[in-house]
Specification:
The chain is built from twelve helices and two strands, in the order ααααααβαααααβα. By secondary structure, it is mostly helical. The protein has a domain of 187 residues. It has a two-stranded antiparallel ribbon. The mean pLDDT is 91.
Length: 278
C-alpha cells in the first residue's frame, strides 16, 4: 500500500501542473455533465445552480501540494494570510462594483435613465457575496491564483502567467455555454466574456503578487465580480449603438493591466513577484 502511495505522490510531484489541471477539469466537467443530463440548471436557484463545480480547484491544489515536497501547512499559511493592508480588501471589492455600475450610467447618458435596481434585496446580495467567498466562485482563486499562477511564474512573467491562467479559466467555463442561464453561445457574448476573463485574470494575477501569494483579496474580488451591478441604465445615446460591456466593462480590466505594465513592466508589481513554494 505505502509503496504505491509513494509512487503516486512521486508522479504528481513530477507533473504538478498537468495533475492539477486533470483534477480540476475532471471534477468540474463531470458535475457539469450531471447538471446538463438532469436539467438542474433549469430549476435550481441561479446563485447555486453550478455548485459544487468550483471545488475542483482547491481540491486539486491541496492534492498536488500534499504530493509535493512543500509542507501543506506552509502553502495554506501563505494563501490564507489575511493580515494585509485594508486597502487591498477595499479595492478588491470596490473595483468590480465600480466597473459594473459605470457601464449602467453610460447606458443612460444623453436622455436615458438610471435607477437603483439590485437583482435582489441588499441583504440577499450580501449573503450572495458571502456565499461566493466561502462556497461558490471565490474559492476558485485558491487554485487559479493560489497554486497555478505561481507555478506558471517559474517560467513566465506575471503578465504572461496571468494570461495563461486566464485561457484555462475561460476553457474551464465552456460547458456552461450549453445550458447555464447566465451564459449564451451568442457571438457577441463570447467576445465580451473572453476579453473580460483574460483582462480580469491579469488584474487578479497582479493582485496575488502584490499580496505576496495571499489569496483572500482575490477571493473578495472574484466574489464582487459575481455580485454584478446594482444600477440599471437605459435609453441613452450609447444604448444599442455599441457594446458598453465590451468597451467599458472588459476594457476597464485591460486598461488597469496596461497601466500596471506601463508602470512596472511585465512583472506588474512594484516589488519582486512571488515564487512557487518548492
Amino acid at each position: 500500500m505505502f509503496p504505491n502511495l509513494a509512487v503516486f505522490r512521486s508522479r504528481i510531484e513530477r507533473h504538478r501542473i498537468p495533475a492539477f489541471l486533470l483534477v480540476v477539469f475532471a471534477w468540474t466537467w463531470v458535475w457539469d455533465a450531471v447538471y446538463y443530463a438532469f436539467g438542474w440548471w433549469d430549476f435550481l436557484p441561479v446563485y447555486i445552480n453550478s455548485f459544487p463545480r468550483q471545488w475542483g480547484l482547491p481540491i486539486g491544489a491541496v492534492l498536488v501540494v500534499w504530493a509535493s515536497d512543500v509542507p501543506l501547512r506552509e502553502w495554506l499559511g501563505r494563501v490564507f494570510q489575511w493580515r494585509l493592508n485594508p486597502w487591498y480588501y477595499i479595492g478588491a471589492i470596490l473595483l468590480p462594483l465600480i466597473i459594473g455600475n459605470v457601464q449602467q450610467v453610460l447606458l443612460a447618458l444623453g436622455g436615458g435613465s438610471v435607477s437603483y435596481s439590485p437583482p435582489a434585496p441588499l441583504h440577499l446580495l450580501f449573503v450572495f457575496f458571502l456565499l461566493n467567498v466561502f462556497l461558490l466562485g471565490g474559492v476558485e482563486e485558491f487554485g487559479w491564483r493560489g497554486f497555478l499562477q505561481p507555478q506558471f511564474q517559474e517560467r513566465m512573467s506575471v503578465l504572461t502567467a496571468s494570461l495563461a491562467v486566464g485561457v484555462l479559466w475561460w476553457a474551464w467555463h465552456l460547458p456552461l455555454f450549453f445550458g447555464h442561464p447566465n451564459f449564451t453561445p451568442d457571438a457577441l457574448f463570447l467576445v465580451e466574456y473572453t476579453t473580460f476573463v483574460l483582462g480580469a485574470s491579469t488584474v487578479l494575477g497582479a493582485l496575488v503578487n502584490i499580496t505576496k501569494g495571499a489569496v483572500i483579496p482575490a477571493v473578495f474580488m472574484h466574489a464582487a465580480i459575481n455580485v454584478g451591478s446594482i444600477l440599471v441604465g437605459s435609453g441613452g445615446k450609447l444604448d444599442g449603438l455599441l457594446s458598453v460591456s465590451l468597451v467599458v466593462g472588459s476594457g476597464a480590466w485591460w486598461l488597469i493591466a496596461a497601466v500596471l505594465v506601463g508602470l512596472y513592466g511585465r512583472s506588474m508589481t512594484p516589488e519582486s513577484p512571488i515564487e512557487p513554494l518548492s
